[in-house]
Design brief:
Blueprint (H helix, E strand, L loop, with lengths): L9 H5 L12 H15 L3 H6 L3 H12 L1 H13 L10 H16 L1 E2 L4 H7 L8 E2 L2 H6 L2 H4 L31 E3 L5 E4 L1
Antiparallel strand pairs: 1-2, 3-4
Length: 187
């Protein structure tokens, strides 16, 4: 049975194809960004790479602040032996804070008004979620052995129980258990 509409490739062949995604940064550049991020987050390179967000976060940082300020931050971190406590200057400190924030929460934060002005940014100085998967991959969940609610295993209802590895809270009137297994005090 036909509907009277010929099946031809004509309209499909002339349809515009979506733009290809921008190319990923080179692996060496991602490795340098991960080295910087290790120093800022306290997580090792394996864990950061395991999130799958390193290349995307690098592109986000460069899009938000520009190549020169990002390269300046990376060089400043190299000069201080990757110790963020030794960073000097408002721009480097604020960018380091923003990169750390991005990794932990998956959100690019607003920069300070002074740094935003110094960088002469052409984008709004607003917070935004970098990508939907950034919420799920945020390092904040790993800091307390938790899971992003509704987005990652072990699943429904797991927030009702303490994170794995943490001692259970005693019932009122029972002695509290310390990490070393001893008891003492009541709740």
């Amino acid at each position: 049975m036909t509907t009277g509409v010929p099946l031809t490739a004509g309209p499909l062949a002339n349809a515009a194809l979506p733009d290809a995604p921008p190319p990923a940064p080179p692996a060496t550049e991602i490795d340098r960004f991960v080295a910087l991020s290790v120093a800022l987050t306290g997580f090792d390179a394996f864990e950061l790479q395991g999130t799958g967000m390193a290349g995307f976060y690098l592109k986000t940082v460069v899009e938000q602040v520009g190549r020169r300020p990002y390269d300046a931050l990376r060089k400043a971190m190299e000069q201080v032996g990757f110790d963020p406590e030794k960073l000097q200057g408002d721009v480097d400190q604020d960018l380091a804070r923003a990169v750390t924030h991005l990794w932990y929460l998956g959100v690019w934060p607003p920069l300070s008004a002074e740094v935003h002005a110094q960088l002469q940014r052409q984008v709004a100085n607003d917070a935004f979620t970098a990508a939907p998967e950034a919420y799920v991959q945020g390092l904040v969940w790993r800091t307390f052995h938790g899971h992003p609610q509704g987005a990652k295993a072990p699943g429904f209802g797991t927030w009702a129980a303490p994170p794995p590895g943490e001692p259970e809270l005693p019932r009122p009137g029972e002695p509290a258990r310390h990490h070393d297994g001893t008891t003492g005090g009541t709740r």
